[in-house]
Amino acid sequence: MTQEIRHCRLLIFVFALLGANFGLSSFAKGAQNSIVPHSAAYELKLVHAVSGSNIIGVEGFMSYDWSRRCDGWTNDQRLFLALNYGQNQMVRFKAVSITWESSDGTRFRFKINRNGMGQDDERIEGEAILEERGGAGEVLFEKPKAKKIRLPKGTLFPTQHTFQTLAKAISGAKFDRQLVFDGDELEGAAPITTVFLPKQAEAVLKKPVKGFSPKPVYPMFQAFFPPTSRGRDQDTMPEFEMKIFYQANGVAPRIFLNYGDFKLRGDLIGFKESPKPAC
Which of 61, 120, 248, 276 ranks highest by number of CB atoms within 10 Å? Predict the structure, then answer.
């Protein structure tokens, strides 16, 4: 795998976070009820590239629509990036992730499409079911090929993981580690660790955004490790890291994405609240 392809494959990891179990405590349920369904758009800019990465510039755009349904939550996320390696070598990357997660956190359907590097489109589709929230289960992949994988006890899906980490941040927790399945690869659940930082008054945007209301934010660092199905000896180093600034309502005005060879900053440039269903 070339360096450029490795970069592009890692770019999908951000989808697991912007989607959105304890065992859902009353506090967690309160956090879930306070979530504001919304659409958001981010401008992505390069803030650092390590020596030897050959990257001299990155520009991009990311959007997601986090909507409430009577039977669960849907998430439509899109990522567009242009990586400049110099000497007229520009790599363009696109990823689209469309998911549905049941309200009780036991079912998860996913469709992921990504392309770039002149490669054929990569599509991953399927459905995962847990015996109970945070319990064991299995995932049935439909594309690119039929495949069944067992999910260990303690597995969460992305939206429930978001509810948990946000509720823990508000409660003053310092650390969290969970197994999360997001459908990104033809593999099982992967560990995500979270370090919670002190609450801040607000995240000041570069430019005012219509409809967005500045509020206190709960910064957190998250590290994504390889899926457990690859073997425990391979999960000592994260494949991707992220710092995200969440408001209590689930809106994230700022994010920082660390892919090892380069780091991106994402600033909110568009926002719109979505209507809640009349169930």
Answer: 248
Extents of the domains making up the chain:
3-273
Burial of residue 225, with CB atoms counted within 10 A of its CB: 0-12 exposed, 13-18 middle, 19 or more buried: buried
CA dist 14 and 19 (Å) reads 9
What distance in Å separates the CA atoms of residue 15 and residue 200, rounded to the nearest whole number? Answer: 24
The rounded distance, in Å, linking the Cα atoms of 100 and 19 is: 10
Task: Note the pTM of the prediction, 2 decimals.
Answer: 0.84
Q: What is the DSSP string of 91-142?
A: EEEEEEEEEEEETTS-EEEEEEEEEETTPPPEEEEEEEEESSTTS-EEEEEE
**Can you tell me the distance from the alpha carbon of 222 to that of 240, in angstroms, rounded to the nearest whole number?**
8
- Per DSSP, the chain holds a count of helices (H) and strands (E) of 3, 15
CA dihedral 8, 207, 49, 195 (to 10 degrees): -80
Could you read off the pLDDT of 145-174 as tens digits, one per residue? 999 999 999 999 998 998 889 899 999 999
Cα gap 234→182, rounded to integer Å: 19
